[in-house]
Design a protein that fits this description.
By secondary structure, the chain is an all-alpha fold. It has 4 helices and no strands.
Length: about 90
């Protein structure tokens, strides 16, 4: 049985080439795998959510964002002064 499989793979390699044979084997394996899954809809939904997670709505605290921006602006002149002192 295993020898017949290698004969078929060899014949495919000689007739249609390596990449097409590889694609055919990958699609065959994917079809076989999906055929063995019991709940296909749930499996595909979970797989899609793992690849592309659902976006969670985030609440923005305006006061916190303003405070963070003010801290960043306060730090920038200090960094610029430190760079100027190093250059001198």
């Amino acid at each position: 049985a295993l020898g017949a499989l290698f004969v078929v793979i060899g014949a495919l390699l000689l007739t249609i080439g390596f990449w097409k044979t590889l694609l055919l084997a990958a699609l065959f394996a994917l079809g076989y795998f999906l055929g063995t899954v019991n709940n296909k809809g749930e499996f595909l939904r979970e797989a899609a959510n793992r690849v592309i997670p659902q976006k969670q709505p985030s609440v923005i605290d305006f006061r916190q964002e303003v405070a963070r921006e003010q801290e960043q602006q306060a730090e920038q002149p200090e960094e610029q002064n430190a760079v100027r002192e190093e250059e001198e």
